[in-house]
Sequence to fold (158 residues):
Amino acid sequence: MKIDRYDQQILDILQADGRINNQDLADRIGLSPSPCLRRVRALEESGLITGYHAQLDAKKLGLSLMALIHISMDQHTPERFANFEATVSLLPEVLECLLITGQSADYQLKVAVRDMDHYQALLLNKITRIEGVTGVHSSFVLRQVVSKAALSVASGAL
Fold:
């Protein structure tokens, strides 16, 4: 999909404020409401906009411990990876699962848990019991320095 400066502005604004109403969005980018709404719908239908989400404060929810877990698998087969991915996608503590390269691990998980006991239960009762998991290396987040969900629209190759 080819996007112009209006679409870029729409994407930037919606990433910062997904609850903005169409009139305010149109005013901010200098379009009338009708063409603005058509553009937003076209961006949604193209799949460029995949959804709208509320960002929550993990600590206020009692999830005060965040960990990055590197997972090594015994076999590099599509079936083994598919089973692992399907299983971790069902774990509510898993915020992110990345298939990675350049490390001794195959996957990196980002998890949010209440405390070390919760982490231990997740690791020992769920993650290490997934068929094919042979190695686990954990790092604990001391402080989150940067956290962005917004993508840079201007620097993309659109």
